[in-house]
Amino acid sequence: MRRVIGVLTTIILVGLQISIVYADENNDIKKHPGYVNFDEIDIPGDAEETVEVNIKGPLLKLVSMVTEKEDPALSKMLARLLMVRVNTFSIDPKIARELKPKVQKIEKQLEKQRWEKIVRVKSKDEHVNIYIKFDKKDRMAGLVVMAIEDNDEAVFVNIVGELDWKQISKLGKKFDIDELEGLSEKEKPH
Amino acid sequence: MKRRIVNLIFLFILIVFLIPGCVFVSRDFRMTRNDILNEIGEVDIETEVQLQIGIGLLSISRMAVSFTDAGEEAADYLRDVRNVQLGVYKLSDVDRNKPLVIPPKIAKKLAKKGYEPMVKAKERNSVAWVMTKMCGKRLTSLYVIVLERDELVLVEVKGRLGRLIEKAIHDHGFKKKDFKRI
After folding, report:
1. In what helix (H) or strand (E) does residue B172 lie, and over which residues does it extend?
2. In a domain, B46, yes or no
3. Phi then psi for A99, rounded to 5 degrees?
4. Label partner for A16 (CA 20 to 30 A): which of B26, B123, B126, B171?
5. pLDDT at A16 > cutoff 60
6. pLDDT tens per residue, range A58-86
7. Is the minimum CB–CB distance between B116 and chain A shorter than 8 Å?
8. How far is the alpha carbon of A175 from chain B, nearest alpha carbon, in Å?
9. What average pLDDT does range B38-43 have in this prediction?
């Protein structure tokens, strides 16, 4: 009986340990300077098309391993990433109007946290902003894309981890993020 | 005649007990199916496939596959799989005006089991979820739910899935359009 209790206690302790480690990993990402909270951006329930992709460290390492042979530089960057989060959903002008103040609120937060705006497109129907965060050692620690096309779709992207400017466009191609196409050809921000 | 019946019974017992769960899917798996179907409302369901393949049957499959043309590679991938649960259900009379929804409680339930959403994609006539479960740095389980107006597909695969996923990523990449077509 004592042995059974001992085994059960060990199982419970191991289980607790695993759940603590698991929770810590999630909290660590949230504390990372490159992490941005998009929780305020609710995907409208009646949106016709939505895609939410959330790939974290271990899976990114897998992607990195797959990419190693064909593109070692991209693979190296992928191995250093902690999270790639992409939320895309179809919108109409009404939803776009409701979204814009929320996006502005996030933009203000980003500016307060010293994120650097590297792309800004503002036209009648289109609103695209791309931000980059540098850490204390002046390394790129995160990237954010917020794009709203009034009659088409809204795109919210957050990439957390050490980024290589030259590989960002390739990363966009890999994860189907159109907004990142051609970005690496521009001059690297400082 | 009597010996034949005894042999058949013996074979049946062997299949049911020595090859774990070769016929019946788990209670959790069935509950997930029921939760999704309850959300859709009144609908006619026809089970096309519902099975669980345990390690025993997978070993036999590996042997069978190794004799085919694409054998060695497929057998190699099967070696990493420990358990598969699959359910394919044909749906009819689904309300065309009602949006298709996988109830959020399923995400909560799977989260309790350690699953995290990797992809959630929705179109007018289909919803697809891919959930993954990691053990440290290893991918140990994959749960796929695809709900369409005429079909529901549930798949749970357990094992060392890193290589399988590597291959899937290598062949298909991470294209949003592909996720919508899952």
Report:
1. helix B162-172
2. yes
3. -75, -35
4. B26
5. no
6. 888 888 887 888 889 999 999 999 999 99
7. yes
8. 5
9. 85
Tens digits of residue pLDDT in A87-108: 999 998 888 888 889 999 999 9
Q: Where are the beta strands (DSSP E) in chain B?
A: 44-53, 81-92, 115-123, 126-135, 138-148, 151-159
Evaluated on CA atoms A110, A111, A114, A119, the torsion sign reads: positive
Partners of residue A176 in chain B, C-beta under 8 Å: 173-177
Model confidence over A122-161: pLDDT tens digits? Answer: 888 888 999 999 988 889 999 999 999 988 899 999 999 9
> Who among A57, A62, A176 is closest to B175 (CB)?
A176
Q: Which domain holds residue B35?
A: 21-178
CA angle, corner B74, sides to B164 and A69, nearest 5? 50
Number of domains in chain B: 1
> Smallest Cβ distance to A52: which of B119, B169, B170?
B119
Shortest CA distance from A68: residue in chain B: B170
| Residue B11 within a domain | no
B12: in domain: no
Q: What is the per-residue pLDDT across B46-72, written as a single tens digit (0 to 9) for each?
A: 999 998 888 777 777 667 666 666 666
Token pair 């204390």 is found at: A136
**Cα–Cα distance, A41 to A157 (Å, whole number):** 12
- Residue A58: which of B119, B139, B175 has the nearest Cβ? B139
- Supply the ipTM of this predicted assembly: 0.74
What is the phi/psi pair of residue B132, to 5°?
A: -125, 155
Give B88→chain A minimum CA distance, Å: 23
User: Whole-prediction pTM value?
Assistant: 0.76
Nearest CA in chain A to B119: A53
